[in-house]
Amino acid sequence: MNNSLFRLAALLLVTLVAPAARAATTVFERVSAYHHILVEDEGDVRTLRFNGSWETTMSKSNPLKGHFEYTEYFQMPFVWNPNIKHVLMCGLGGGSTPRAYQHYFSNVFVDVVEIDPVVVQVAHDFFHVNESPTLKIHTNDARVYLRRATNNWDLILMDAYATTRYGSSLPKQLTTKEFFDIANAHLGTNGILSYNVIGQIRGDRQSIIGALYKTMAAVFPQVYLFPAEQSQNVVFICTKSKERYDAARIRAEGEALIASHVVTLPTFHDRLQSFWPTVPPAVTTSPLLTDDYGPIENLLQGTR
Fold first, then answer.
1. What does DSSP say about strands 167-169 and 109-114: parallel, antiparallel, or unpaired?
2. What is the pLDDT of residues 206-216, one digit of tens each?
3. What is the dihedral of CA 197, 150, 128, 21, to 10 degrees?
4. At what angle do helices 177-185 and 206-217 cross, to 10 degrees?
5. Can you list the domains of the chain with their CATH numbers?
6. Residues 6+ apart with CB under 8 A from 96
7. Among 67, 78, 199, 256, which is disulfide-ready with 205 (CB 3.0 to 4.6 Å)?
8. What pLDDT sits at residue 5?
9. Would you call 209 helix, strand, or coil by DSSP?
């Protein structure tokens, strides 16, 4: 058999014996007032999509695994306040963060506010998100909920996204100085706000990172950045405390949390290494976001 015929025979053999690609199975689909919601299973992985964009992934056999890396940075605020007891989560999705908080911090009380009641039902039916004495879910717009609230929290976590013609986008009303003023007013003395943003400190969507940094820094004394390693996510940490932590202090405090078992997330040590020590370069050319001027869609395109 010549070489050409041998290669053809080998290719046919591989084609015949290789397992067929496993197609995703749709287990839920509905158009709500806010999203086209799709839940798909592919092997052990369950995925939640809003208008085609991935929102949540989860291992069906172990719901604490399979999530996006950035959700683990939502445990980073314990570095600045190891005594967090009351948390407000804005944006539910498939509930990766509330599910993790219920597992890792059994003495922490979490309020979740989600605008779409269908998302709440999907999180319950398909992603193991159940209300309990330490987890309460409220159906409302996050800004409206905060403006009407009478209580304070130790930590506010922001992971709310809408969909525009440019794909996943931050809701404008949750990105402005006025919003951060409202959030700051509902944080305790050592309160912290943490915000997940899709972008890069340098490169694609760096303008949105610069604009949000400038806007948050106009309200909070200190703003820190943790860029994810495996995706274009940057998690902001904003503190009411004026004391500045450098990289060495952050790692030392984080290792102390691990040693004392306050934080038991297996990857927490690795996440500590992702701290970005300087101001993002796009700050100088990015606008301060206000209710009157918040060009989110332009920033997502990398322009002003």
1. unpaired
2. 999 999 999 99
3. -20
4. 50
5. 69-300 (3.40.50.150)
6. 56, 58, 67, 68, 71
7. 199
8. 44
9. helix
